[in-house]
Specification:
By secondary structure, the chain is α+β, with helices and mostly antiparallel strands. It folds into 2 domains: 8-96, no CATH class; 103-220, Aspartate Aminotransferase, domain 1 (Alpha-Beta Complex). The chain has 5 helices and 12 strands. Helix 3 (103-116) packs across helix 5. The chain is elongated, with a radius of gyration of 22 Å.
């Protein structure tokens, strides 16, 4: 079952509006599914941790077959669909996209929003942790935020980090890209794009300056 809460964080005010009740920092909600055969109980902590419990109201016992991938049959399928439908609706109504976790990534997103009025666009269902930003006038991309393992950049580490791809002048790329702080554009043309890790290895103000350069380069196409 696809996790509808992946890369999302709860909006607690929206949870309350939805019907969640808060007690000791935990937001709880219960609803019935399958014509009242089951009660689905959901608890969300202040940290966004989610717990669910499905109760068979005929026996007052927890029901878990819907969580077993190998479990089949029409009835289990109906329970699974009802359960998934409630969670998907809560994720849609009460959660907000929260893909990038690093302080520097948040600073970059805020800078792009404040200076250019642009919001990240998540274009690929298969790659929900990749997002682009583009100019409004010509729709050209000038940045890509993504999550990847350092090893993808040629670093001997499997640590997963936030990173950004930006446009760069080919001649400047030859001088700048060093495989230490500045890397060839990940999944992009390495002559005209480069990648930086959003881990503090490049000062934030310097990244802002590169964003501005990339924005201007995107004007040319």
């Amino acid at each position: 079952m696809t996790d509808p809460f992946q890369y999302k964080s709860p909006n607690f005010q929206k949870l309350k509006s939805y019907g969640f009740a808060e007690k000791d920092g935990v937001y709880s909600y219960a609803t019935q599914i399958l014509d009242g055969q089951f009660e689905l109980r959901i608890a969300i902590s202040a940290k966004g941790e989610i717990r669910t419990e499905l109760i068979d109201l005929a026996t007052e016992e927890p029901y878990t077959l819907h969580l077993v991938e190998e479990a089949g049959g029409t009835f289990v399928g109906e329970v699974r669909d009802g359960y998934g439908s409630v969670l998907a609706d809560i994720a849609e109504q009460c959660f907000e996209r929260d893909v990038f976790k690093s302080e520097q990534a948040h600073a970059v997103i805020a800078y792009i929003r404040q200076k250019y009025g642009d919001e990240l666009e998540y274009l690929w269902k298969k790659f929900p942790s990749n997002a682009i930003c583009r100019r409004k006038d010509n729709q050209k991309w000038y940045g890509i935020l993504l999550i990847l393992a350092r090893r993808k950049l040629g670093i001997d580490s499997d640590e997963v980090i936030d990173a950004i791809d930006l446009r760069i002048d080919p001649e400047e790329s030859k001088k700048v890209v060093d495989g230490k702080r500045y890397f060839p554009g990940y999944h992009m043309n390495i002559k005209t794009w480069f990648t930086m890790c959003l881990d503090g290895s490049v000062p934030t103000e310097e990244i802002f300056a590169w964003i501005d350069k990339s924005y201007e380069l995107a004007k040319k196409g």
